[in-house]
Amino acid sequence: MPTMNVIQAVNDALRTEMRRDANVVVLGEDVGRFGGVFRATQGLHDEFGADRVIDTPLAEGGIIGTAVGMALYGLRPVPEIQFADFIFPAMDQLVNEVAKYRYRSGGQYACPMVIRSPYGGGIRGGHYHSQSPEAHFIHTAGLKVVVPSNPYDAKGLLISAIRDPDPVLFFEPKRVYRAAKGEVPEGEYEIPLGQARVTREGSQITVIAWGAMWHEADQAVREAAEAGLDCELLDLRSLQPLDVDAIERSVRKTGRAVIVHEAPRTCGFGAELSALIQERCFLSLEAPITRVTGFDTPFPYTLEAEYLPRAPRILRALREVAAF
Amino acid sequence: MRREIHQNLVKRNGHGGQNGHAMPELPPFAQRPAPHRPEKEFPLETVLADDGSADLSRLHLPAERLVSLYRLMVLNRLLDERMIQLQRQGRIGFYIGSIGEEATVLGAAAAMADQDWIFPCYREHGAALLRGLPLQRFLCDLLGNSGDLMLGHQMPCHEAFAAGRFASISSPIATQIPQAVGAGWAARIKGDDMVPLVYFGEGATSANDFHTGLNFAGVRKVPVVFVCRNNGWAISVPRERQTAAVTFAEKALGYGMRGERVDGNDLLAVYEATRLARARAHAGEGPTLIECVTYRMEGHSTSDDPRAYRAPELVEPWRKKDPILRLKAHLAWRGLLSEADDAALREQAQAEILAAMREAEALPPKPPLESLFQGVYAEPLWQQREQLEELRAAVDADPRAARLREEG
Fold it and tell me: Which Gene3D superfamilies match (chain A) (predicted)?
């Protein structure tokens, strides 16, 4: 089985789906001959041609608006937004068009597409190359939101997302684009959307993370184990649909929950998870549900290590929750 | 980071600002004439003369089709008048009509091929009827009742009709423009003979999506026909406050595409301009922007009263240019329609509207509870299944939960 990083796995998923289905097209800024600024579409232009790997003018609203028309007409577009921070010019198309097209036409039309976009901090990119905007889209009925943490999941989830009948926001953790490596099967395989993965079983605290923050949580959980704290770690992988059963099962067992995400805390997805846990696991809880997150500021340039919920901050929260 | 990448690309490609294009020889800067004179270069194209005569060599519409389009224009007008009345009586919640703009709406739609998609703004229900949307279904949309194709999900006049390749309507302005471009682009990728027609008002030309849509289409010569319904008003804002350009047609130049400016109250002119634009798009010559100069005779919708912002004398000259009167004069000039024919078809249209309204109003006034969650996703999520149960229980326990007001 070949070893790949996340970018290579994304590239492999795109290639696999484009070979399987002639309706799959890629479009965006610099995705063509150049192969994308992160190289996620490298080689696709040569293999599939300029009709299916489309360099668009520089306008995110135009990319998504055009993709809507393509999807309505029966293509399966996979638009790339170069950085998640640049997705906001396309907000109207995403929130009012992509998300609502099936609903507002009473199911007469569907608008399936996968919007791929690198997200997150830790790359010295300042606040226009570091944001984690997932909550905006989870909050918009009609959209699905997927965030892989590793190459195996990236490929399997992207293939599932492309085959999904609904529009999917696919946020790729650019901080671990190259750093996260692993074995990735050749050919096609699907990881169903809406299934979390328990990456470490434990009995005392449930730790919930996704994307790049799974790696920080994983380190924190390992360090906690050395200190005698037995944590269970969940990689959500898909935020909408959400595997609430996996969360419920784990928290009922451990009685404690720590949620980790790098987006700002207020109204971040951690708030929703926290509400769901208290609604479903109230009588099992032994300690307050705790969030370790980015702060309520724009993403900083110089103090980004401090801003990101890195392992030491997570570990501190684990100790406090255990001692409550 | 994006800038660095850009600079690297420029370095690699070995050129700076000119992109390698050879510039034509021009006289010295100070002596150059003004670049263009839009009022001369984009003259208002008219086919129908005031007396109803027309150069028949310019017509590509069989007489029978012309009469049926006239009938539809009349139906559209009577429908709008009747629905505005019903809104005032409180029988429908909202209405947005096309009184005075029927020639633009129907002339453009009629010039497209059956397989072509229509991306409407929100005044083009006439085009949906042309594509076969049953009148009764349209009225169900206005009522949002159990017969509504949109399952009561949209406010009135936001219809979609997939069987007629009539796309779904949204209230945000101009969003349908890049979508139409995407559909035309997709058809070309698939090798299909399909050219989308997209309507928008002149106010939409101020919005981002107008620019991105026309720019994408121009760059890639996407087969699509852009119809700007310049009716003079975006709610209360006159066209002079939307653009400093002399015409909307000239905006085509900046996108490297052809622009046309036609008399939007002349069905024959709109039809002809659209027919030619479709033929060019099909031949690979790219998109066309057609400005149809018309006038919004009523308010923007039933939610505004134009007397608050528009002097009545501005409207008066347009009454003589009524698109229905003009086509009627033409049909009379050709001996295709007598006064008696006209009276009969009006009576028939009124009867059709009344019958359709009776049928629509006989249906249960609300779609079933579960329709609230239908079509958000292909399959409902667990959250929606739970929420439906929660709602059912609440309504069962206290029916007031299903009413907006105590008395309703």
Answer: 3.40.50.920, 3.40.50.970
